Amino acid sequence: MSEFSPHRFCTAPLLDWSDRHCRYMWRLMSKRARLYSEMVTTGAILHGDRERHLQFDTTEQPVALQLGGSDPQELAKCARIAEDWGYTEINLNCGCPSDRVQSGRFGACLMAEPDVVAAGLNAMREAVSIPVTVKHRIGIDDMEDYLGLTRFVEAQAGAGVDTFIVHARKAWLKGLSPKENREIPPLNYEMVYQLKQDYPHLQIVINGGINSLEESLQHLQRVDGVMLGRAAYQTPIILAQVDKQLFGEAKGPDAAHVVEQMLPYIENELQRGQRLNHITRHMLGLFQGLPGARRFRRHLSENAHKKGAGSEVVEKALTLVTQAA
């Protein structure tokens, strides 16, 4: 498996978390990671505040837009819009298990309708020149284990899709909350490895329960790529080691330098009307495990939400860390 796969290391689409402010910070730490947006529904793009949903800083590239939807025409329209905005990939969500998603006929429930998914992916592929990919579970409810998974994958491969991001857990659509669906269904990495073995021509990216780059390297012996979600968010400085450990390139900045590099971005965003805490909420875990981390978190949590709060709040929080160190 080539170390040059564009999906060798990815950050997950995290609803309410992986917004453009978060992705900007992540990009400061890794030049090679492929970043994914939060899931955005086709309805939000076609009928909502398009700029709020699609805006991003060009320094985030390569950045992919994750779409939620099932109507081929709507998906194709949104894919064209996303390409015009400059996204480098469109990813279809077939893994989110929330009730709200099921009622809208998108997310994990679509694994029961592989032909519907294939029609949507094919429509998007015909509408754009950028890659179209799919993120899904290994199964849902009582879907027959590996056979059900291969039926789903083969249908999408038949529509021309060659990159599959596989969350190595089933989703139970009845009886479990979205949070429980991230934790209770057991991980089955072997099923994802088997998928790569049986379909060597496809790019298989593994997701779910991966907490370190050491674990990532183990997975990369069996699949083409890894995707980190909560580990990358809760301990973001892990991303500063990605380029070195997974690509053999220079490592990223330390946490203090990341904060310093965020200051001009914060100033610019505040001038555009953003609130400080909308940015700093993603920075709370930067010093996780280091001296002064609690002081840093507390100062931002207690002050960034205040009216008129500016970058001086972040600078003060940084001094609390350096003093502790």
Automatic annotation (TrEMBL):
Site (Interacts with tRNA): N93, K179, R182, R294, R297
Cofactor(s) the record lists: FMN
Domain DUS-like FMN-binding: 12-319
A Pfam family annotated for this UniProt entry: Dus
Active-site residue numbers: C96 (proton donor)
Binding site for FMN: Q66, K135, H167, N207, G208, G209, G229, R230
Keyword annotations of the record: Flavoprotein, FMN, NADP, Oxidoreductase, RNA-binding, tRNA processing, tRNA-binding
Keyword hit for Flavoprotein: yes
PROSITE patterns the record matches: UPF0034
UniProt enzyme class: oxidoreductase
Reactions it catalyzes: 5,6-dihydrouridine(20a) in tRNA + NAD(+) = uridine(20a) in tRNA + NADH + H(+); 5,6-dihydrouridine(20) in tRNA + NAD(+) = uridine(20) in tRNA + NADH + H(+); 5,6-dihydrouridine(20) in tRNA + NADP(+) = uridine(20) in tRNA + NADPH + H(+); 5,6-dihydrouridine(20a) in tRNA + NADP(+) = uridine(20a) in tRNA + NADPH + H(+)
Family of the protein in this entry: Belongs to the dus family. Belongs to the Dus family. DusA subfamily.
Biological role stated in the UniProt entry: Catalyzes the synthesis of 5,6-dihydrouridine (D), a modified base found in the D-loop of most tRNAs, via the reduction of the C5-C6 double bond in target uridines. Specifically modifies U20 and U20a in tRNAs.
Protein name: tRNA-dihydrouridine(20/20a) synthase
Higher taxonomy: Bacteria, Pseudomonadati, Pseudomonadota, Gammaproteobacteria, Cellvibrionales
Gene name of the record: dusA
